[in-house]
Design brief:
This protein is α+β, with helices and mostly antiparallel strands and 287 residues long. Helix content is 18%, strand content 29%.
């Protein structure tokens, strides 16, 4: 919860650095912050529950429309799933989670890839709850015109918090969905599913190996494929991949799955989002 208590100045700095929404050279920003605040407070006077609105230290206002005291709280690194629809204060619909036949939106909590208001707001709800968030421009689309959102627009965001899943839960759901058996799991949740039988010594640290591989997210989106040669226990590959190899034998095939702590962590890489568990289909080549 500590990020909910950050000052407005830090919020500005965060959004400038990570989302690119803000223009540091724009001298109108400070005045527009106040304009947004007044506009939101005026709108709340027209809302039947407006008197119950709470103002977060960032300038975000929110109203819990449907409470669920027994719901779960989101934690850093979770995959949080929400439904949302966003409007200008005049009622014009401008954003929605309903895109490409999907009705929900899942994002890595504290991955800092999306609107700051969504990143912050998820900590103000529990699963099963519905809320309205009123986002000043710097927690929404920023200070430049977008396709259907004018610069400096405050946004009313209607949000339903569907679920939040830890990386371990995501991995377990993936294994169950695939129907994998004979799963070997280490204490830090590196999973190995061997797909052929090979005898002999396992690959040791410091050995040169060649590996054919396909890397995918847990939704089966492919992000990499190829053949690579390297020395185990040295720089050049992510920990989960290297450690799995040292449990295999030459000519052995396997599916390996591991959390982001053994992959690309909180930063992600290219198509790989922050806090993303990964799966690889690998074959250790003969030499």
């Amino acid at each position: 919860m500590k990020r909910i208590n950050l000052s407005l100045i830090i919020v500005f700095a965060l959004l400038i650095g990570l989302s690119g929404c803000m223009d540091k050279d724009n001298t109108d920003d400070t005045a527009k912050v106040k304009e947004n605040e007044v506009a939101i407070e005026n709108y709340l006077k027209t809302d039947s529950l407006g008197s119950k609105a709470i103002r977060d230290s960032s300038g975000l206002y929110y109203i819990i429309r449907k409470a669920n005291p027994n719901g779960q709280l989101a934690k850093r690194g979770d995959a949080a799933t929400i439904k949302y629809t966003g409007y200008l204060l005049d009622g014009t619909k401008v954003v929605s989670s309903t895109v490409d036949s999907k009705t929900t939106f899942t994002f890595p909590v504290e991955g800092y890839l999306f609107w700051g208001g969504i990143e912050r707001g998820i900590f103000l709800m529990k699963t099963g709850e519905k809320a309205t968030f009123f986002l000043p421009f710097y927690l929404a689309s920023g200070n430049s015109d977008k396709v259907n959102i004018p610069a400096y627009s405050p946004i009313r965001l209607e949000v339903e918090f569907i679920q939040t899943r830890s990386e371990v839960q995501q991995i377990d759901e993936f294994i169950a969905k695939k129907g994998y058996t004979n799963v070997e799991r280490t204490s830090d949740n590196l999973l190995i599913i061997r797909t052929n039988k090979v005898t002999g010594d396992t690959i040791k640290a410091g050995m040169a190996v060649s590996v054919k591989y396909v890397g995918r997210l847990l939704d089966d989106t492919k992000f990499d494929e190829g053949t690579s040669s390297f020395t185990t226990s040295s720089a050049g590959t992510i920990p989960g991949f290297d450690r799995a190899l040292r449990k295999l034998r030459r000519t052995e095939k396997a599916i390996i799955v591991f959390p982001s702590s053994l992959g690309y962590g909180k930063s992600g890489r290219d198509k790989i989002l922050p806090y993303a568990p990964l799966q690889f289909e690998i074959e250790v080549l003969p030499n």
